[in-house]
Design brief:
Radius of gyration: 20 Å
Order of helices and strands: HHHHHHHHHHHHHHHHHHH
Structural class: mainly alpha
CATH superfamily: MFS general substrate transporter like domains
Largest sheet: none
Distance between the termini: 29 Å
Number of domains: 1
CATH topology: Growth Hormone, Chain: A
Length: about 400
């Protein structure tokens, strides 16, 4: 799960880093960055279907399928002849990559006990940060690599193909195997939709609270991170090497801090940790997009990037823990689809509406205004730290 998370993060971070180079080759303007990412995120609809299937046929089969799909679509990206082909390949990368992300969290939640579940999920977050750091390291050499940005995607495809072969012996999670054994075989369309129907009939309040939490957070935060490399290069004259160094340093710190935050959330709770780092994230990114002071800019990048990681880890943990095994992957997909669509809407509004009218940085700041609204549903969500999954689902 950790290797897949690392490689998936590498894959999903490349465009944010190399957007300037990719769009320039295809004759697209800088303002197309946000809208391009927004269209890529449409892959979340395919991920929803795959996650629904994971609650029917099992985690193992879907993980074998998605890692191979991510490898092949990443390889197709490296050879894309046109912008449209590039976009189509990247949408497919996200269909499989988003499913991988959600299922990795589900598997870890199901396999670890309550004392260490937050730490384990946070360790995946740390490995995700490492994957982003690897993407940064490779990106710093983009000007020297043969075929430039295309080589970055090719480099990402090779280990994914190797991992697909290594996964042949991956076991099914014990919780899903037990749940499957206690239920009749599902063969009809109605049976296939049972996890989705059960989710909305048994836990409508919980799923509504989770959606209400992720939508304002994703709407405001997606552009802060996705557009940061472009902002630093175009408005602070950062070279690709400087962007890489800045993000890499935050990634190294973030790896260590993510595991510490996860361990801490196992002790004091997911909700207070999420609320604390949400406030830190807002302040850090507001500073980053307004300051001209270089030391303050570095501090803002550090706390902003790690703050997003810390909040994201708590949201993922809560989203996986609140629901029973038979609907856990489906619930993760529902949460993720609203998160991705809200983030995509924010990126689209930035590139198509706000940036042309108010400027690049001001558009990011405007989109951050709804983020504090995420604190309201967080207050009503049951605390999940230190409780077994069966106990959480029963109440």
């Amino acid at each position: 799960m950790g290797i897949a998370t690392l490689l998936g993060a590498y894959d999903l971070n490349v465009f944010g880093l190399a957007a300037k180079q990719v769009l320039a080759e295809f004759g697209k303007p800088e303002t197309a960055t946000g809208t391009t990412i927004a269209f890529m995120r449409l892959g979340v609809f395919g991920a929803l279907i795959l996650c629904l299937m994971a609650d029917v046929v099992g985690r193992r089969k879907l993980l074998l399928f998605t890692i191979l799909g991510m490898a092949l679509s990443t390889l197709a990206t490296a050879f894309a002849p046109t912008y449209e082909a590039f976009l189509a390949a990247q949408i497919m990368v996200r269909v499989f990559g988003y499913t991988e992300d959600m299922l990795c969290i589900v598997v870890i939640a199901e396999e670890f006990e309550e004392r260490t579940r937050g730490w384990a999920i946070s360790t995946l977050g740390a490995l995700s940060a490492l994957g982003g750091g690897v993407a940064v390291i490779v990106f710093t050499a983009v000007s020297y690599l043969p075929y430039e940005w295309r080589a970055i995607y090719f480099i990402g495809a090779v280990p994914l193909l190797l991992l697909a072969w290594m996964r042949r012996g991956l076991p099914e999670t014990q919780r899903f195997a037990q749940a499957r054994a206690s239920q009749p075989q599902r063969r009809t369309v109605h049976d296939t939709l049972r996890p989705l129907v059960g989710l909305f009939t048994r836990f409508p309040g919980r799923i509504a609270l989770v959606i209400a939490m992720v939508v304002p957070f994703a709407l405001g935060s997606a552009s802060t991170l996705a557009l940061m490399p472009t902002f630093l290069q175009n408005y602070h004259d950062f070279s690709p090497e400087m962007v890489g160094a800045a993000i890499l340093c935050t990634g190294i710190v973030g790896m260590v801090m993510a595991m510490w935050v996860g361990r801490h959330s196992d002790r004091v709770g997911r909700r207070p940790i999420a609320a604390l780092w949400l406030a830190v994230t807002i302040g850090a990114f507001a500073l980053m997009y307004t300051t001209d002071n270089s030391p303050l800019l570095v501090v803002a990048i550090l706390f902003g990037v790690f703050g997003l990681v810390a909040v994201g880890i708590q949201i993922e943990a809560i989203g996986a823990e609140l629901f029973p095994t038979e609907s856990r992957a489906t619930a993760a997909a529902i949460r993720f689809i609203f998160q991705i669509l809200a983030g995509g809407l924010g990126l689209y509004l930035h590139g198509a509406v706000l940036a042309p009218a108010y400027g690049f940085a001001n558009a990011v700041l405007i989109l951050m205004i709804p983020i504090p609204l995420a604190l309201i549903p967080l207050f009503f969500i049951p605390e999940t730290a230190g409780r077994s999954l069966e106990d959480i689902a029963a109440r």
